[in-house]
Structure of Long-chain-fatty-acid--CoA ligase:
Amino acid sequence: MLTTMMDVPLSLNHVLERAGALFPTQEIVSRRPDKSLVRHSYAQWHRRTRALAAALAGLGLQQGERVATLCWNHHAHLECYFGIPAAGGVMHTLNLRLAPEEIGWIAADAQDRVLIVDDVLLPLYGQFKHLHAFEHVIVFPFSGTSVPAGFTDYEAWLGSADPDAWVPAPHLETDPVAMCYTSGTTGRPKGVVYSHRSTLLHTLVACMGDFWGLKGSDVLLPVTPMFHANCWGTPYGAILTGAKLVFPGPHLHPEDLLDLMTLEPPTLSLGVPTIWMGMIQAYSAAQDPAHPQHGRWKLPQGMRSLVGGAAVPESLIRAFDAHGIWLLQGWGMTETSPLAAVSYPKAELRNAPQVERYRRAAMAGVPVPLVDLRIRGDDGQDAPWNGQAVGEIQVRGPFITGGYHEVPVSEEKFTPDGWLRTGDVASVDTLGFLRITDRTKDLIKSGGEWISSVDLENALMGHPAVAEAAVIAIPDEKWSERPLACVVIKPGHTAEAAALNAHLLQNHFAKWQLPERYEFIAAVPRTSTGKFWKLKLRQMFPN
Amino acid sequence: MLTTMMDVPLSLNHVLERAGALFPTQEIVSRRPDKSLVRHSYAQWHRRTRALAAALAGLGLQQGERVATLCWNHHAHLECYFGIPAAGGVMHTLNLRLAPEEIGWIAADAQDRVLIVDDVLLPLYGQFKHLHAFEHVIVFPFSGTSVPAGFTDYEAWLGSADPDAWVPAPHLETDPVAMCYTSGTTGRPKGVVYSHRSTLLHTLVACMGDFWGLKGSDVLLPVTPMFHANCWGTPYGAILTGAKLVFPGPHLHPEDLLDLMTLEPPTLSLGVPTIWMGMIQAYSAAQDPAHPQHGRWKLPQGMRSLVGGAAVPESLIRAFDAHGIWLLQGWGMTETSPLAAVSYPKAELRNAPQVERYRRAAMAGVPVPLVDLRIRGDDGQDAPWNGQAVGEIQVRGPFITGGYHEVPVSEEKFTPDGWLRTGDVASVDTLGFLRITDRTKDLIKSGGEWISSVDLENALMGHPAVAEAAVIAIPDEKWSERPLACVVIKPGHTAEAAALNAHLLQNHFAKWQLPERYEFIAAVPRTSTGKFWKLKLRQMFPN
């Protein structure tokens, strides 16, 4: 027997056209380099996006060819999210925080034909253009000044294209629409290629009520850069639901974000923990009547914020909850589109004590629909979900990558039965909550026992004087490895090793689990995606 | 360039296994024939469902073969929803409200191999068993009494199967999982066959925040029978999100439902307008201190209710809103899985006056994602979305049927370019809201102008004395057709034609649009799915 259902492919073009038809008056707000706000309606965005598709077709772009973007978060970047696939192209978001050499290497590896770049990022382009020859460089006049001679002006180029001339080409749902490179701290970055299918499925799952819970009445402020795992997929969700969008442009400092949230209060936001730590510190400091910014900011009451990219300390969740803002921790990676797990308040926790809810909120969460997840122990067997047994997280599903662009599938990254090896080590409890204990390569093996650097970091960051803490392994003759804690003390505070050890003992760490040594540093070095750059720390403190 | 995403098919088996792993303690409550409640945990349901799959495999069920159900809404029917597909079978829900001859014809047309039937429905089975020979008849002892000799006892059969023996067979995502017959008022019923893919996509779309908004913390009470378009797909959504389920069993009278809602307060419910009309009438009557049921019921404050299957009068929406219950109107049909449009409060209506919000809530709603929708005028052209122009609603998408089981694709049902012709006539306004003006065959053409029977019905049902109103066309020598209103007056009320006409004039009907005649009847005849059976009315009042 056969299904009688229509054979209609999933397509971003459907999402684009639907938004144009159903949400014409909804708003997209972008912050310019001079901090002024520019507003577009969905109707305008829709026509501009169609014009972009027509303009790319005019350049002779062929199905599957890459169009790179080097842009901040703004409406034109959102045009690229839909306009490039509408032209049959693949949007390749370049990460402007990488070293220029690395950006150039990535553009060459992806064989990008076209580059769409913010005018304010042309100096960066200048630093890597010798490494890859784009056929066309289109400059978006983000700052409002005229585009330098020798470049195509995005606005003029769009203006010369006819939005009504665009006719969506038939495509398979497995055809590619976007590409991101992983920010591996070891080895060369590798390209992950998303399809219409994976993007739509990820968006539908992530939009569900327990996760993003995205509705047309939401106001979404994506602090996460649009070049990080497609802004965690949220722009697709906004356009699918017809939500209002507020883009911060290049202004990602805590004070700038507090200004923007006060001007255009979001109901949903997203970013890495560092962003939220900085914001709550700036906001709290300004509560002092003597502070120069006193009274300037209003936190958006009732906002939910997706936080991910690194573990979210429980203390941060509690701090925001006190202001009526709920941090919803997600776990995932570029390879998983990215949302693979969310730490939402499950029905089973409804009557649990508040301390229990916070404890779960600080975990990596529960696997989302369409993601199969298992934890594989050292013995190659699935570890039981008992909250104790640990293993490497392995995942499988229609929005999980099964390989990398032009890289042979390796056993280091994929199991023989086709699951992605994430490199994260976790336990899963009886309610399905993942607790990341470490990265495989960050585990500390002391005297035959594992010590979780992540647990130590979270506990240390719960100390009132500690702004940030990163724990690495140092070699030890007797114990093989011992933990070293690199700690950043908050301005105006002090704390010594003895006080921090006492705090850890209070938090139920065993004596042998305490750091062997503390290093007090000015800042934890970070990767371009905002994660603790432990490789760098290991170089700084080799022993 | 190729996507790097994994090729993993959408599968109900994933949803089944995920629910077993993540929501073991969540509850499924079912009301038995004796009105007692029986409770199962998801963990129990999960093991029973796996046992069902193993038991069906034990019968030699092959991929794609049909297993019919003749059951009320309860936990065992939910086991069929996942257990039959888990065995590779196709769940075919028989509509117990049809005439026995029709049920038998449908079972034969579908070539059902197995029947799973409630013990309380065995008398009905006896009335059609001569029309189709099931190879196996399994009786669910719903009433708790022992199963008659000669039948297999569902409980004993399940108990003899090993839940751990079930291994999901590989399948395509386009493989069939369920089958429903349309309740055509003309011609033979026709089978619609859903797939893993269509079911998962429909579920994900319908779960979105603006539509069902289903979360794990929800309590779902499906009043809609599980044999109507798969209970509008909601059981799949509940299992996907881990929501609590409350099944009413055979007790669908307003007073029974009020009892159940008082015992197990739902946050989300669903049913046809008649159900809600009956409930609000019973509840309102009981507000009188002299009423025998005074103080017995509590309406679930904050509940949302999906209402569909027939137009929802604005007066009904207002009546429930006064009690803190929001009726969310959906539009669709068996052919559309069924949710194709939802009348949710769009962001654009946020600052609109209340009267405007109610007006839209009483419309059929906005097309949901993955559904392409157009209205085709008599001229074969797409009518503009201006709130005035009308045309037939035509839809297309991955959860819309493109044909019927073993019926050649006809031009009456499908356009040459592959869209489903729904037979409903509507306008769409600038915000994308569908207003159904009529069924194509129910339009009244008077003097060259169309009169909407639905508009007349809605307005008449807004009159305080009118319980129900159905309007049909009667032949007229001068005007070709004229409207005839068949009206049911509420007990204890009176209203005459003159008063009803005055009411219509007040509601902005033109004089020529008023019914030519009124017939005061005891009840509007209904189809088995609860829709006004206009064919019957036309037979009753041929002129």
